[in-house]
């Protein structure tokens, strides 16, 4: 399959085309993020987010550009957004008379926050149970047992590319369930 054909087929929601594009460009995007973040977990998470966003917006891809460049741009923007969020977690930096005062947001959950979190977790678990069993299993392994993609691949005895695509699909279906579609 050629890249152009894969893109056209992906625009028509062809799962094999998505797999092909993921397999073809995963190393490029992951390598780019690994150099930027110098952290394998962050690079992997950003790469997954990149493909998820790209596949959701595949119909907006302009064939006048290369697909790899488009993916790298999406990846770079996701990383920049994450850096901005980290930067905003420190609420103020005040400098007075050569003394610096760092006021960091207190993110310790209150009793009310804990109750809300527990209720949200219970609702999330109910929503996960609405997924097909193989999607439930992959979400459980990745997010609750914190397995790496390689560990999930070994556990399920499936190629890593299948694991990545299944996880993308599971997250998308779960998001639709949560939104009430």
From TrEMBL:
<keyword id="KW-0804">Transcription</keyword>
<feature type="domain" description="RNA polymerase sigma factor 70 region 4 type 2">
    <location>
        <begin position="125"/>
        <end position="174"/>
    </location>
</feature>
<dbReference type="GO" id="GO:0006352">
    <property type="term" value="P:DNA-templated transcription initiation"/>
</dbReference>
<feature type="domain" description="RNA polymerase sigma-70 region 2">
    <location>
        <begin position="24"/>
        <end position="87"/>
    </location>
</feature>
<dbReference type="InterPro" id="IPR039425">
    <property type="entry name" value="RNA_pol_sigma-70-like"/>
</dbReference>
<keyword id="KW-0805">Transcription regulation</keyword>
<dbReference type="GO" id="GO:0003677">
    <property type="term" value="F:DNA binding"/>
</dbReference>
<keyword id="KW-0731">Sigma factor</keyword>
<dbReference type="InterPro" id="IPR014284">
    <property type="entry name" value="RNA_pol_sigma-70_dom"/>
</dbReference>
<comment type="similarity">
    <text>Belongs to the sigma-70 factor family. ECF subfamily.</text>
</comment>
<dbReference type="GO" id="GO:0016987">
    <property type="term" value="F:sigma factor activity"/>
</dbReference>
<protein>
    <submittedName>
        <fullName>RNA polymerase sigma-70 factor, ECF subfamily</fullName>
    </submittedName>
</protein>
<dbReference type="Pfam" id="PF08281">
    <property type="entry name" value="Sigma70_r4_2"/>
</dbReference>
<dbReference type="InterPro" id="IPR007627">
    <property type="entry name" value="RNA_pol_sigma70_r2"/>
</dbReference>
<dbReference type="InterPro" id="IPR013325">
    <property type="entry name" value="RNA_pol_sigma_r2"/>
</dbReference>
<dbReference type="InterPro" id="IPR013324">
    <property type="entry name" value="RNA_pol_sigma_r3/r4-like"/>
</dbReference>
<dbReference type="Pfam" id="PF04542">
    <property type="entry name" value="Sigma70_r2"/>
</dbReference>
<dbReference type="InterPro" id="IPR036388">
    <property type="entry name" value="WH-like_DNA-bd_sf"/>
</dbReference>
<dbReference type="InterPro" id="IPR013249">
    <property type="entry name" value="RNA_pol_sigma70_r4_t2"/>
</dbReference>
């Amino acid at each position: 399959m050629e890249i152009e054909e894969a893109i056209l087929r992906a625009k028509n929601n062809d799962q094999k085309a998505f797999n092909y594009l993921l397999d073809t460009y995963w190393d490029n995007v992951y390598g780019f993020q690994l150099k930027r973040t110098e952290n394998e977990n962050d690079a992997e998470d950003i790469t997954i987010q990149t493909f998820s966003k790209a596949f959701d917006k595949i119909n907006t891809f302009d064939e006048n550009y290369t697909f790899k460049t488009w993916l790298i741009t999406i990846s770079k923007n996701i990383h920049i957004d994450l850096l901005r969020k980290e930067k905003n977690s420190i609420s103020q930096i005040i400098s007075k008379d050569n003394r610096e005062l760092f006021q960091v947001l207190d993110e310790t959950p209150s009793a009310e926050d804990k109750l809300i979190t527990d209720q949200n977790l219970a609702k999330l678990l109910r929503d996960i149970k609405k997924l097909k069993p193989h999607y439930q299993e992959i979400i459980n392994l990745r997010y609750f047992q914190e397995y790496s993609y390689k560990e999930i691949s070994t556990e399920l005895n499936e190629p890593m590319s299948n694991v990545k695509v299944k996880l993308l699909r599971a997250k998308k279906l779960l998001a639709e369930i949560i939104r009430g579609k």
